Amino acid sequence: MFKHLKNRLLLPFIALLLPLAATAQTAAIDRVNPTNWWVGMKSPNVQLLVHGPGAGTLAYTVNYPGVKLVKSSTVENPNYAFLDLSISPTAKPGRVQLVGKKGGQTVTQSWEIKARDNAPKGQGVTAADFIYLAMPDRFANGDPSNDKFADMRDPNMDRANTFFRHGGDLAGAAQRIPYLKDLGVTAIWFTPLTENNQPLTNEGGTMRASYHGYGFTDQYNIDKRFGGNAGYKSYVQQAHAAGLKVVQDAVYNHVGNTHWILQDLPMKSWLHQWPTYTNTTYKYQPVTDPHAAQSDRKNTLDGWFVPFLPDLNQQNPYVANYLIENAIWCVENFGIDAWRIDTYMYNDQPFMNRCNAALLAEYPRLHIFGESMVNNVVDQSYYTRNTIGFPFKSNQPGTIDFVLEYAMLAGLKEVGSPNAAGWDNGAQHVYQALAQDAVYQDPTKLVTLLDNHDQNRFLSEVGDDLDKYKMGLTWLLTTRGIPSMYYGTEILMKNFKDPTDAEVRKDFPGGWAGDKEDKFTAAGRSARENEAFDFVKKLATYRRDHKVLHTGKLMQYLPQDGLYVYFRYDATGTVLVASNTTDKPASLPTARFSERMAGFSKARNVLTGESLSSVATLQLPAKTAVVLELGK
Asked: What CDD domains does its record include (predicted)?
């Protein structure tokens, strides 16, 4: 999310340390979360967070057929009550009346249980998919009327300021669904859409907006600057109708410091509290280190990510229930297909297992993959289902494969250099990362990438070299895993995080009315940009249409002399990928690969359409990867 943001900002977080006492004589209820539930969920239980002046001083009853109040709990702050309900499968949809009494006062709050619909939800993403990651504020603006609101803590919108909101929204993204379909994308992942009613924050001396979406202020509202709950439902329906799946970005570790709950904290233990402000060290090693000091582990896990994102205590059962129920609510309410989980490794891992299990119990096909930015396969495997004897066993189905990303970038940077054919250089980085896949129960569930919203853009990382760019995209779209691509990579958007990450989060040209260039269209792109777009489209479309690149086995051969060869194969076909990482053309005799090539005498070049009448020796241009569909 915010990769190693080190500045120490001052904020009045001390005011959040103690719950406020309810002083109102008349009790009232102003909020119930979840905002509704459904009949027929696999788990009949739901815990309601009820808030209002003196809400925790009321004695509650529920009189609705099939709905039972199992338990009513109070906490430190008398403005909260937690009601455990059981909803029978025989209950009918309708309005449940929560009745609270205190002396002669009666407070009644209506709360709805709905019928489940048959709309697709929890479909999951698999290796058959190609995920497109976009920042909604920077992708396209379809409704200028929701660009800014005077009643929000940040009422600004200014595209000339890289740190302010720019007005992108779900209406604009919906208009670009045909563009994504044409590119060969099968799933869209937006950075968080959840309400971020945060003021501008002073980060490193610059006032910045929460346009990125990682400072939640109400988990039950989609930010109205993106189109609100109705706009998100509409977008998901349009995406599904077009054959696109939707990945939601979840944050469990923290919330924005103006989250509505933090304005009237239920209890001190809702957050990780410290005598003085304590930031996480961002060091992941103490979590898995068998020799680690407990204090180091605590600092990593319980320290705040940044000062304006208070750290949630997921060991608090009320916090845990609140987050888990919101996750289920989001899938059921909006119909999303997969979860990407922010800052996964900073969460309490037993809580994450419980949350994952609850989601998968309701939606068995749902895919869950978290962000754990580590640089080795052992630590990376800890946060997903693995084969290592860790004392804690994660149940997360997937994770983001940063280790393979770092390997691909390291190898690509050496392409064309004298180091490309070195013992541990060039494609050896990629080979060695994949050679350790035995640590994962299922490495095909890992989400692969070349960059994202927190990193330097891929094209800049490889020196604006189109040959390296094509080789990297070839690896991404033909190796194992679920490939993801950051918006604008297909049109050669570039930049480094210098001086800030705003430089890698530029607006997509053509996403706003009046833009000088519209790169959503071929006419608006340069010849070089169209070459890149067409390259991605051709490879992504081939991947989409050929099962061998989804579920086919992977066999790789040790790189030799800067040449790296691997195969994807199954009963439907065999695809050979050969990369020449040197700066000179090379002839590649294929006798060494007879284990996979026996019986094949010809091939078709997937990228050029060229037919090869013989595959005994392959001619590989310098700094090029070829993709060959083998034939007999």
From this structure: AmyAc_bac_CMD_like_3
